[in-house]
Predict the 3D structure of the following.
Amino acid sequence: MFKRTKVTDGTATGQGPDAENWDGKEVGFRKKSKVPGVMITQYIEKLPEGKSHPDFTRKPIALTIQEGKFAFFKAIVTGDPKPTVVWSRNNGDVSDPARYQSKYDPNSNEHTFEMPHVKPDQADTYKCFAKNEYGQAMVTVVLNVIEVGFKMTKAPQQQAEVANCNFKKVLKRRSKVVPKAEEPEKKEGEIDPKFWELLMSADKKDYERICAEFGVTDFRWMLKKLNEMKREREEEQAEFVKNLSDLKPIHINADGTASFELEFDLLDPSSSIYLYKDGEMIPYTKELGDKMKHCLRKVGRKYIFSMRDLMPEDAGFYQLDVEDVNMFSTDFKMVDFLVKIQEVKAMEREDAVFECVISAPLSKLMWFGKNMPLEQGDKYDIEVSEDKLIHRLVVKDCMVVDKGIYAACAGIKSCNAWLVVEADKGAPKGKKTARKTTRAGGSGTDLQKVAQEQQQILDKEREERKEKIKAAREAAAEAAAAEEPEKTADSGAGKDKGAAVKVERIDKTSVAATTTVAGDSGSGHSAGKASGGAKQDGSHADAGGGHSAGKASGGARKDGSIADAGGGHSAGKASGGAKQDGSHADAGGGHSAGKASGGAKQDGSPADAGGGHSAGKASGGAKQDGSHADAGGGHSAGKASGGAKQDGSHADAGGGHSAGKASGGAKQDGSHADAGGGHSAGKASGGAKQDGSHADAGGGHSAGKASGGAKQDGSHADAGGGHSAGKASGGAKQDGSHADAGGGHSAGKASGGAKQDGSHADAGGHSAGKASGGAKQDGSLADAGGHSAEEASGGARQDEPLADAGGEPGITSGLSDIHAIRGQPAELTVKMNTDCDGAWFKDGEPLKSGGGISITKDANIHKLTIHSCRDTDSGLLRFVSGDLSTEGRITVGDVPEFDEDDLHKFSKPVIVRVGQNAAFKMPFQPQESLTVSWFKDGTELKDGGGVKIVREPNHSRLLLRDCLRSDSGEIKIQLKNPFGAVEATSQLIVLDRPGPPEGPVETVETTSSVIEIKWNPPKDDGGSAVTNYIIERQERGHSLWTKLGDVSAEKTSFRDRNVTHGKKYSYRIYAENPQGLSDSLETADSIMAGIMILSGPPGKPKVVSTSKTCINLTWTPPEDDKGVPIIGYQVEKRKKDTNQWLALNAINEPIEDVNYAVKDVTEGAEYEFRVSAINESGAGDASPPSAMACAKNPNMRPCFKDPEDFLVVRAGNSVRVKISYEAEPPPHITWLKDDEPIAPWINVINTEGMSQLVIPSSKRSDSAIYTIKAKNSVGEAFFDVEVRVTDEPKCPGPVELEQTVYGKVAVSWVPSPDQELDDRLYYVVSQHDSNTRMWKTVADRLFANTYTAHNILPGIEYHFRVYAKNDMGLSDPSQSPTWGANSNRVPISSNGVSSMEISFERPPSILVPLKVHTPPKGYQLYMTCAVRGCPTPNVSWYLNNTCINSDKNYYITNSCGVCSMYILRVRENDGGEYRVVAVNSLGKAECSTKLTVRD
């Protein structure tokens, strides 16, 4: 038997299904699944019949997906009973139904695990469990999530990671190559970082090319720096991989995909692999056949990255990183064709040349001929110029089979052209022409000149890069020489503005505050920038008032602490400590030429880095609690910025005179942020609030910008009162608060707050800008009553109910939003239910007729008409009548337009050949709400299939792949926005071979020497005009088509003058255009030259013989053949009682002889026949019909064909006696047994021409003489068959020997029991003597029971064997006693001495057991084992407890204890448990195995 290893489930606690009930102690047997990666545990050793443990037929696939997308896994499981499927993850639970959903589709049997809007924290290893009562199957799958953008919620976590010195997790995964959108402005002469990345992944032979491309000429400096960078990179790579090798740059494959590859071994298999394009991470899949564009698959140690569906935007710089270390970088460039290959027409055995010029040097192009890649060899030469811009393909020794389309591919760009090979008409027939030394083809332009111009452009760009690098180095050297060794910092009142300090800010934008306290950022005199802290609570953040030409930054806080950054005298950098509690961190006020930094704290302790005068940087500490962080008070040439807070703390960055920037703090709570009141040439901004706080940005004298805070509650936000040339804006509110933007003298803009409740918003300040009242959505009043040279608007209300139509005034038809076209009139109408007055307002201001506006009233209909809409007419229009009002917004704009040049270029038709791609591109001005649609013949095209539509902000492209002739038509692009639509049309012309000429072919004239035919032009000329028609002819009776010539396209007729009178001809016509030949138009019937001369009728047919399958005819030739030779004859038949004559052979298949065997007849039917003679003109007159002939055999007396008269059958087998006969009519068959009727269990099967007697299971008593009797109306016949049923005879009885005379021994035996039953039984005697030691037959065919042996010599032992033999074979022998030397020996007694007896008897035992077999279905199987025992045991074979010893499907043998079983061809039902049982008188032994039949 087999030893099985018991295993426990490898699922960790809490990960598997029913984790709370799983104790990990249930044991089972490990099974192997057909699907790799599936682990199966079977709970019991032997499964019940028909039951099975769970297994996966489709396992989930690993997924790498972008954050926010829809992620899902799919699995299909099997098992009986049906398994339960549960999902889990390694690090977390999946119980949240909003994030994890398990579904099952009973139709497809798919289990789906879905994660809508996947988040980065869901990246993990997931497990799928399928479990039933007999076992469990488990598979794991990995989900990788690509993060997008910066997450504000990660700031606290990242700061905690920094505090724990876990910097690796804080750093976001990014490529070292910055994306173009985030790429900083390069300094003059700065080297692109791609240069070093490419060098570290390139071969040394490519160094010179890369340096030339980036303009680097100092190779010694480059190599020195490159070696240093390589050493650093190799040390970084060694932490994650080993054996990095075989780096192959990106290239285009023959199947249209691009790929690059490299080999390495991961030290940690769980390490993440990232792909970047131009510094931006791209998602990819690890499985083939997926729909994602990018794929990364692993083959052994090799990693292969591939892209499909290549487009021009796929060009870029690609990198592969393991964790945060770059492994490989490669640049994918787009190369365009300046000169494309042109069509080549070559003569046979002439060389053809295709040549092109590309825009950038490329060492090799991919050439294709008839969709097959071409390589340098005996047939093709591929040539490249020294500058690698000119590429040529030479097709040597052109033959007709070389005709086709040839293409050159450079990346995703390609061009193709036809090669037309014309046969050499002047060559002698039957001989091969000599190869020509001329070349056909070429581009027809001066390629060298084009290449030189392009090379000059490339050289110029390269020299410009070199000059920039050189100038940058010289400038850096001069700056270093002129730099003073020391710099002093002026500590007096902030007058030193010489020091420029670079400050890194945590956030690029100010965050709006949301509290109920007032916030000020102002009152300081500064030409720089002062920024208040960002707060999220009720704290106070001030950024202003400090004297600094630099930047001072207050601390960032999340509690009620105070962060001040201002007032310090410093030209350097002072940084306050970062705190997360209520501690105090100050960085400021000290005089220092260095850097003062406050300590980082997480508790309530103080950290001070300040008090002195510094030329560095003063920065307030960052806090997250109620502590106080000050970075200010000193005079500094830096920058003063208020601290960023998230609680109720106070952050001030002000009070000093600074040339920097003063900005009010950003708050999200009730804090106070002020950015104003100070005299500054910079920018003063009030805090942004979202609650009831107060944000003021005003009152100060500034040439910058003063902005009131944005509010969402009942707070007060003021942006005014200050004298400023900037902008003053009132706060935005969403409750009942008051937002004022006015009262201040400003050349900027004052705007009242926007409200959504019953509050009051005033925009009434004196300003040359714009004052706008708040917008309201309730019953409140919005006033815009300020004095302004521009516009004042009251609030908008959207919540007034309409009056009822009955009695009280009401609005039956109100205003709605409309879009008006610039320069066109617009009309707005309001309909009341009664005649009452009303007033019109625009953006809160009353409107009156005049200035291009007309207001009219007709009874209860009020109209406002704008005669010519302008941009200033856009706004919110409101109609008020008493307490009723309605409003609508008018938006003025233009219908989309096309540029005239672009429209003219687009209108030109696009002409392509069949199978090529057609591309359309239309530029347009970028607009909002613009819908772009493409149409073909009025039907809108959708992206998918052979249609590719690309929509960019300033253009749209349409690509039609593999065009057909039916794709020709009108192509239209439509631009649509709310103002209207504009369309542009073009034409697509797909060139193809012309269609066949229109038929039918008309016969204009036919004489003995001329045949003239006529046809019509083809309906479809293939897009280009037909140039000529080609005519071919075939003579009737021949298979060869001969070309007669061609005619011009204007002529659609042809005269054939080479004809023979009386012969028939078929014609076919081809139309030809530059694209090739059309399909042929063929004449429907053959055309005879001249008139028809038909032969006379042959003689009347005569019936020679008939049978049920054939009627033989003969006839005489016609007496008058009209002088035209007879080709053959046509025979027709007509069935009795019908009028239709049916031809038995076609006219073009004449019967050459004057006799014919008609085999297409029905037995018993009567027919008559007639014959026509055929000559070149056709079939002549038919002969008189023959006499009626019946399809039947002639009458015949029964006779038997080659019967057998003796048959021997083994008893138990079936007896089959087959007798064939011939007779007409069919005879009556009778069988007799010994002249008596046969028994009823004997079957007789009669078929046509044969009778069969069948005895299913014969016995000896069935031996007899069987007689068959056949009788019909003509006569009868008999035949006897002797059937002998017998078996192998039983052996004769005991043999006795007796010597009668000297030298002779009489051998006698008892007769065999079968002697009386079998009269053909006889005996065979064999003799053996001690001299020869061989058995030989001494007597045969003995019918007696005695035999006399001669020449019996004394001193020699003799043995005799007697066999019984009959027709089935020999019986077992009867052995005689020994005769001879020792036959009379006297036995010796033991004289009373007893001897010990030795017994060899033992019970059966298995020496070699059966082995497990898993043969495929239909294969042979040999199963064996070894058994011993004494006496010899009886061995039985069992299949599933059923004995198969007597089953004929199994061949079972037992030779000396080796028991074998052989199956010739294994079937499905042969599978199961096989058991061998050996039994003797002393016991029993058995062994078993299992047989599994594979499909």
Confidence is low (pLDDT under 50) at residues 1-26, 150-174, 486-806, 1384-1388. The radius of gyration is 54 Å.
